[in-house]
Each structure stands twice: as structure tokens, then as C-alpha cells.
Design a protein that fits this description.
This protein is mainly beta. It has one domain: Beta Barrel (OB fold (Dihydrolipoamide Acetyltransferase, E2P)). It contains two helices and 17 strands. It has a seven-stranded antiparallel sheet with strand order 9-16-10-13-14-15-17, with no helix packed on it. A four-stranded antiparallel sheet has the order 7-6-5-8, with no helix packed on it. It has a two-stranded antiparallel sheet with strand order 1-2. It is globular. The two termini are 28 Å apart.
């Protein structure tokens, strides 16, 4: 895996970079049809046909890959058939086939290649791709695809290049250091997969041109200060003014330092908030 640059034949290609897809087993290979489903493009519009999310629209047509985040098939070894590209996420996915013939997709960690064997078990080896309860994973191990509630499926550490580290175990909980720097307690009977999510170089990819953002379904984002007063609280004024007030959303809610996170029952499990460097 790596980043591929281009000759500067145009201004956009001077900075544009892409993944070299070296970890993909076969770029001509089509996804497993039974493990995909149609994905409808909403264009940012809700059930009433009105825009509920601004600046969404267009994008390349995609099919959703059904990734197995629960790993409920216990004690059945599976062989990695191929490492594939997934347009719906930054990570790569691995097509695995169990010894009974069933196939599924899982997130592909660093070091997992075609021909590797993975298993979901209470006492699996500490090898990339294996899935087991946090209680059975030694402290210091890096994990990904971590559950927040037993049986609910992986919710933490799923994007390209990230991992969570097991720091300690006490009182039925495991202390995890998340990619954001947050320290959080998770029930020790929650499951996690061993290793770091693959496609580590994803963060170094440069979009390079506006059209490439349109392929991803991102429309141009208009600044509030460039609008008219009827369209945004920061709009209007002579010349390039900044609205004459603190930055706000189009509906008047402050956008700098204003806490919008709703309090949840899991707040009490956060031992230390994310580090200020990553806020």
C-alpha cells in the first residue's frame, strides 16, 4: 500500500495523489454479488423531498458491501479469498470463506493477505483479523472494530489506519485508548478484532481537483459571508465583510466552541476526553 503521484501535466495533477491499490488482490475482480445490495442516492434530501443535508449530491453510483461487524460465526476458521476495494469506506475489506462454504466480508487489517486464516473465537490467537472478547486480549494489544455493547456489532475504530489500544482491565471493564486520544471504559465481554485497520496511507491522499470531490457526492460548499442577508446571518455588507458577528450556522447556532453533543448514558464511561491536540 502506498500513495501514487502524477506528472504535473495540469495544475490539478501537480498536487493530486491516489492510492496505488497494491494491497488489492485483483482490481478486475467484481464484488461478491450476494454480499452487496443497492444503495440509493438521496441527494441530501429527506422523506419530504426537501434538502436536509446541504452540499450533498451527485457522486458515482455505488453498491453497498454487507460487512460482517458482528462476527457471530464462532470457532469456524475462514480463509481470506481476496482483499477488495470498498467505495463506501476508507478501509479495505477482506472476502473470507468459512470451511462450510459460507462467505462474508470483514475489515482488512494490516498484514492480512489472501490465503490467511482468521477465526472468531473465545480463545483465538492474537493474530491480525482474529476476533475475540476484550477480556481475553492482553493489555497493550492494538485492536479495531470494537463493540460498545455485546452483540451489537463493531462501532469503534473502523476507518482506514486507525486502532485502539487496550490499556488496562478492571471491574468488568477494559480501558481503551481510542484514536482520538480519548480514554474510555468498555465492557470486557464486548468483542474486538486484532490489529490496525489497513490502507494506512489513506490520510496522505490529496483530492487535487474539484471534480474528484463531485465523484464522492460532495457539492461545492458556499461560505455564509458570501451570501445575501436573507440566506445567512453572516451575509451582506459592503466588500468582503465577515458578517459583523461571531460565526454561526444558517440557523443562528454558534459554530466555535459551542457544545452540541447530547449527553448519553455512556458519558460516565469516558475516563478522559480526547486530547486538545486532536480537537
Amino acid at each position: 500500500m502506498g500513495v501514487k503521484a502524477f506528472r504535473p501535466t495540469t495544475p490539478s495533477r501537480r498536487t493530486l495523489t491516489t492510492s496505488d491499490f497494491s494491497e488489492i488482490t485483483d482490481r478486475r475482480r467484481r464484488p461478491e454479488k450476494k454480499l452487496t445490495q443497492a444503495k440509493k442516492s438521496t441527494g441530501g434530501r429527506g422523506t419530504q423531498g426537501r434538502i436536509s443535508v446541504r452540499f450533498h449530491g451527485g457522486g458515482h453510483k455505488q453498491r453497498y458491501r454487507l460487512v460482517d461487524f458482528r462476527r457471530r460465526k464462532l470457532d469456524v476458521p475462514a480463509k481470506v479469498v481476496a482483499i477488495e476495494y470498498d467505495p463506501n469506506r476508507s478501509a479495505r475489506i477482506a472476502l473470507i470463506q468459512y470451511v462450510d462454504g459460507e462467505k462474508s466480508y470483514i475489515l482488512a487489517p494490516v498484514g492480512l493477505v489472501a490465503g490467511s486464516v482468521v477465526v472468531s473465537s473465545q480463545s483465538a490467537d492474537i493474530q491480525p483479523g482474529n476476533c475475540l472478547p476484550l477480556a481475553n486480549i492482553p493489555p497493550g494489544t492494538f485492536v479495531h472494530a470494537v463493540e460498545l455493547r455485546p452483540g451489537r456489532g463493531a462501532q469503534l475504530a473502523r476507518s482506514a489506519g486507525v486502532s485502539a489500544q487496550i490499556m488496562a482491565r478492571e471491574g468488568g471493564y477494559v480501558l481503551l485508548r481510542l484514536p482520538s486520544g480519548e480514554l474510555r471504559k468498555v465492557l470486557e465481554n464486548c468483542r474486538a478484532s486484532i490489529g490496525q485497520v489497513g490502507n494506512v496511507e489513506h490520510e496522505n491522499v490529496v483530492i487535487g481537483k474539484a471534480g474528484r470531490s463531485r465523484w464522492l457526492g460532495r457539492m461545492p460548499h458556499n461560505r455564509g459571508v458570501s451570501m445575501n442577508p436573507v440566506d445567512h446571518p453572516l451575509g451582506g455588507g459592503e466588500g468582503k465583510t465577515s458578517g459583523g458577528r461571531h460565526p454561526v450556522t444558517p440557523w443562528g447556532k454558534p459554530t466555535r466552541g459551542y457544545k452540541t453533543r447530547r449527553r448519553t448514558n455512556s458519558d460516565k464511561l469516558i475516563v478522559q476526553r480526547r486530547s486538545k491536540k486532536k480537537e
